[in-house]
Task: inverse folding
């Protein structure tokens, strides 16, 4: 877990707090209205409408605030449009995972295989697919469990397994390919190269590593000293808790 991931979780909690505050204010207004109606059936007194207004406002911000933020943060131009998918297919990996793979550009051009980071999917390569496919055969894929790919039946995920999944994608290249890896994708590329050195210079023409590491990301991220100190007692139990509560985490991520 990196410092950025901690920030994401912090904002998730803030988002939930906004939602909870909105619900609480509306419930409080309803309860006050019932009590006042019972005490003053003639309608001479009313529950404060400010509670209802604030509650509805927080709920509106919680569910619709993203629309306003897009106007604030969005930029014009085709490069920043929707991240669409291209045509692709599912291939079967040796461990039983089903991998979504797309190929763009001339089938006989030099091949680039782009591997994304964890928590993302191959749509992050939209601009790269469009620009690089003019000169290269661009192959992108979704890591198992992300995007349109499916996990192996046993649900296990390791760097070694992901490296073998990359090997399955590499078989689709017509000749040597350059392996491009971002974040965890870079770790997968390095793991593949370490496990299959005989492929270097034969199946693998080159390697491009983006914003990645060759070791535990906690050691190379911002505030590495602090995160390293709390990795064992705090971060690992937190990640295990997130696995156990994965349906709730999906809801939190969507709501935030």
Result:
């Amino acid at each position: 877990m990196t410092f950025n991931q901690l920030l994401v979780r912090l904002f998730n909690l803030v988002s939930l707090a906004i939602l909870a505050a909105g619900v609480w204010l509306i419930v409080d207004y309803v309860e006050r209205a019932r009590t006042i109606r019972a005490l003053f059936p003639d309608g001479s007194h009313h529950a404060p409408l400010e509670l209802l207004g604030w509650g509805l406002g927080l709920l509106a911000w919680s569910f619709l605030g993203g629309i306003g933020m897009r106007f604030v943060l969005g930029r014009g131009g085709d490069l920043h449009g929707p991240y669409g998918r291209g045509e692709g297919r599912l291939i079967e990996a040796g461990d039983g995972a089903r991998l979504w793979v797309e190929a763009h550009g001339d089938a006989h051009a030099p091949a680039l295989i782009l591997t994304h980071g964890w928590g993302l999917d191959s749509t992050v390569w939209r601009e790269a697919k469009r620009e690089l496919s003019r000169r290269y055969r661009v192959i992108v894929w979704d890591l198992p469990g992300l995007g349109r790919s499916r996990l192996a039946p046993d649900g296990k995920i390791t760097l070694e397994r992901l490296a073998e999944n990359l090997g399955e994608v590499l078989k689709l290249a017509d000749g040597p390919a350059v392996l491009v890896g971002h974040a965890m994708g870079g770790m997968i590329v390095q793991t593949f190269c370490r496990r299959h050195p005989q492929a270097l210079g034969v199946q693998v023409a080159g390697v491009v590593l983006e914003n990645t590491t060759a070791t535990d990301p906690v050691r190379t991220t911002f505030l590495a000293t602090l995160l390293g100190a709390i990795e064992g007692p705090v971060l690992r139990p937190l990640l295990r808790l997130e696995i156990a509560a994965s349906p709730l985490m999906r809801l939190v991520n969507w709501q935030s």
About this structure: The beta strands are 88-92, 98-104, 111-115, 137-141, 177-182, 204-210. The CA atoms of residues 163 and 191 lie 6 Å apart. Helices lie at 3-39, 49-73, 126-132, 159-170, 184-195, 217-220, 224-244, 246-255.
